[in-house]
Design brief:
The chain is of the alpha/beta class. The protein has helices at 37-50, 70-85, 99-109, 114-141; strands at 2-8, 12-18, 25-32, 53-60, 90-95. It has a single domain (2-141), classed as YqgF/RNase H-like domain (Nucleotidyltransferase, domain 5, 2-Layer Sandwich), CATH 3.30.420.140. It has four helices and five strands. A five-stranded mixed sheet has the order 3-2-1-4-5, sandwiched between helices.
């Protein structure tokens, strides 16, 4: 069974996925939905059918001081939609602080073209979100 990572944003959503054994995480795609969750939910349904996903991990954009931002409320509403539509799949939330910063650092290190950065930053952030979750699972099993 695979795990799916989501970096949820207004216009774009980054998607990452584990391999079947849950050893590696790779970026899958960036979904451009322009604030239309129906488009996003439809694409997620296609992805979930293609891959054998048992858990969706979504990043919660908590402020650096630990308080909830307006984006947290929007993300929580989307999580509710996920739970309603995909009620047979476990939905996990994870603190996503600094994942976008880490994604930008990675792209700078790899010297990614500025025009390409906008299209892949959310997918790289989703990878960091899912890796954080997978590391928590591994550490709790030890």
């Amino acid at each position: 069974m695979r795990k799916l990572g989501i970096d949820y944003g207004e216009a774009r959503v980054g998607i990452a996925i584990t391999d079947e054994l849950g050893i590696t995480v790779q970026g899958l795609e960036t979904i451009h939905h322009n604030n239309n969750d129906k488009i996003l939910l439809q694409r997620l349904e296609e992805i979930l059918k293609k891959y054998d996903v048992d858990t969706i991990v979504i990043g919660i954009p908590i402020n650096m001081n630990g308080t909830k931002s307006e984006r947290v409320e929007i993300t929580e509403k989307f999580i509710h939609k996920l739970k309603c539509k995909f009620n047979n799949i476990k939905i996990e939330e994870i603190d996503e602080r600094l994942t976008t910063v880490a994604a930008h650092k990675t792209m700078n290190f790899l010297d990614v073209n500025k025009r390409k950065k906008k299209n892949i930053v959310d997918t790289i952030s989703a990878v960091y979100i899912l890796e954080t979750y997978m590391n928590k699972i591994r550490n709790n099993k030890l």
